[in-house]
Specification:
By secondary structure, the chain is of the alpha+beta class. It contains 2 helices and 3 strands.
């Protein structure tokens, strides 16, 4: 069932402080510290939501070569970046 307010985006202020438990709860600490892959590109779709708002896509490959595309709204990404900048500077 879709989330009533859209796709929730969890903001984790310090991944190392909780061993990544909040970042990806089902991942092991070894997986998080070794990394799953790398982000290779980021792009936007002007009207990616059903309401016509912009969405952002982050694309890359897992270590095994599997391509991955992740999506969130531009609004959620902007809020997350603002929160992280307030905490860590930017």
């Amino acid at each position: 069932m879709p989330h009533p307010l859209g796709t929730p985006l969890r903001i984790v202020m310090d991944i190392e402080a909780d061993n990544g438990d909040k970042l990806l709860p089902k991942a092991t600490p070894a997986q998080l510290h070794s990394g799953f892959g790398r982000a290779e590109s980021i792009g936007a779709l002007k009207a990616g939501t059903s309401g016509g708002r912009a969405t952002v896509y982050l694309a890359g490959h897992l270590k095994d070569g599997t391509p991955v595309i992740l999506e969130t709204t531009l609004r959620l990404l902007t809020q997350a970046v603002n929160v992280l900048n307030a905490r860590h500077g930017g």
